[in-house]
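FAQ: What does the model actually see?

It sees only this:
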Amino acid sequence: MAELLSDAKIQEMATQVPDWSVEGKELKCVKTFGGFVEAVDFVNKLVEPAESAAHHPDLAISYNKVTITLTTHDSGGLTEKDFAMAKEISSLS
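And it is asked to produce this:
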């Protein structure tokens, strides 16, 4: 199980993923696209990195918006895995 980060470490690491916000025990990001097809295409790009890392985001698609939520469920909050995946996802857009 991955080690939970302290609040200070979370705030420090959050500066490395400026498109993301810390909301309680989660990292969240909303991406907006030209339409539904583009939003789904983006979600499909997340499959390989998530599978490779064995760390899967929670996703919500609302027409042209994709809300991505990261947390390490088995640890009960934010870990380095979440910030690493946030960086990976940010590099895809």
